[in-house]
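Lab meeting minutes (informal)
Scribe: AK
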Amino acid sequence: MLKVIYNRVMDSKRIFFLISLLLVIIYLCQLLIPYIFSDFIGVITRTPSANIPLEPVGFILILTIFLMVSSYIHHVISEIFISKISFKYIIDIDNKLEHIL
């Protein structure tokens, strides 16, 4: 049964690798945002309020938007992928049941 599921996934290699790539992007963004934010907090505490750089804020905002978009695309693609694999698996089970009878 696991071999059948594995074969179904390997039939759709491109989608599977796209989902994996999106997961890497999502995890990278989730790691970078706290690091940049903690560095920004360190800069705020060390400098006077008039000289606070705004580049980290913009970078955090861009990473957050990128994270939300890639998470949404990952969710939609993975749901479509799961539905296709499940549908093919159900069709195969149905065909096997018809041949039994």
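Next up, CB showed the second protein from the same session:
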Amino acid sequence: MKALVVVLAVASMISILLTSKLLHKLDCTRPEVLRTAGITKVDWWIDCVVGVFRLAFGPAGTLLDTRERWTFVSAACAFVWAALASVSAIIFPEFWKNL
């Protein structure tokens, strides 16, 4: 179980780093795609995170190629996994202590 948590954590960190790189690239080359998703600035505040979800699952993502869209999907999944892990650590601390 511990190995699974470590693998998910590493995969999440890698996907967030790749997403950050892609967001900055899109901000330089195609800023209209980011504006369509509601991202005005790549700063990882709530508007930027919501924009990542829009690019992953919304109609704004149709402006991206498949690789770019799957990068945003992996980041959105990483955000969901981190939120669920955080909530479960608060609700079930004994589970996380026994890992």
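CB comment: The mean pLDDT is 93.
No objections, moving on.
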